[in-house]
Amino acid sequence: MFLLVRRGQVRRYAASASVILGVLVALYLGRDLSWKIDILAGLFLANGVWLLGGTASMALEEMKSRWNPRLGILFVWMLGTLLFLATYSPFMAVRHVLLIIPPLLLILGRSFDFTARSRRAWGTVILNGGLAVILGVSDWIYADVYRTQAKLLSQDLGEHSRVWYSGHWGWQWYANQHGMWQYERGVTVLRSGDFLIQPHLAHHQQPSRNDHERLRLLKTVTVEASPLTFVRTMSSAPWGGFYSSGVHTLPWRLSRAPLEQFDIFQVR
User: Fold this and answer.
1) DSSP-derived secondary structure letter, 103
2) 256 in the same domain as 148
3) Is residue 56 domain-shared with residue 166, that is, in the same domain?
4) What distances in angstroms separate CA 268 from CA 179, 190, 207, one per listed residue?
5) With b meaning 16 or more CB within 10 Å and e meaning fewer, what string describes 53-84?
6) Which residue, among 180, 174, 169, 167, has the nearest Cα to 147 in the 3D structure?
7) Is the pLDDT at 122 greater than 60, yes or no?
């Protein structure tokens, strides 16, 4: 969105102030994080401040002139959605904010000239489209880890052994499809020789104390990252990326960490 800043000292100063404000706030809130995350958090926040400020400026300009009823409907659509999310959403996430993108694009499209001469506008469209493709491919590769690993791990542990798993999300779905049994704390009865698979990234339930004392770690299966997954929508902590966002968990980040790790335990 910063590429869409038009000429004029006031708007350039406003964009610069948004960047400085965003970085300072991110540095303060994320002072225990790495500087790389601080910079990304600052740019995300600054971009949002600038975007909301530009939208509010357009609304004021429209109100000074003749008010357009169609534009008013778009503003009500966008503001109503934001108010609903701020009031009833249990947590903030990019997937929630995606709901305001259609009215926001229709509003912003009125003020920009998408012609061959408008390099800023077309540059923004190309960069955002490219980033969307990269994030989509990365997210698909990450999600496919659970499908492929559920099949490989179930085959590796053998058909005649009872294989339990802990964890939710896509991992839960694919593990069920390949005949694994879901571990339930305080209910599941583990037998000697059973296996338990526990992912690192996917949110999972911890074994009870008695079961934990009987578990012996056999090995850890690591799924390494690839060049297509360096832009990651999932962080190293659960509920990351597009699925739950905050200062400590960014919408997306640069990472070469493993996509996932699976601890395989055997019951003694």
Assistant:
1) H
2) yes
3) no
4) 22, 9, 14
5) ebbeebbeebeeeeeeeebeebbebbeebeee
6) 174
7) yes
Residue 66, domain member (yes or no): yes
How many Cα atoms within 13 Å fall on the side-chain side of residue 15? 12
In the chain, the number of structural domains is 2
Check whether 7 has a pLDDT greater than 60: no
Predicted structure pTM score: 0.73
């003749």: which residue's tokens? 66
Contact 132, 156 (CB under 8 A): no
Residue 37 DSSP one-character state: H
Return the number of other C-beta atoms located less than 10 Å from residue 239's C-beta.
14
Residue-range definition of the domain harbouring residue 183: 144-267
Q: Summarize pLDDT for 63-104 with one digit per residue, the tens.
A: 677 667 777 888 889 889 988 988 888 877 888 888 888 888
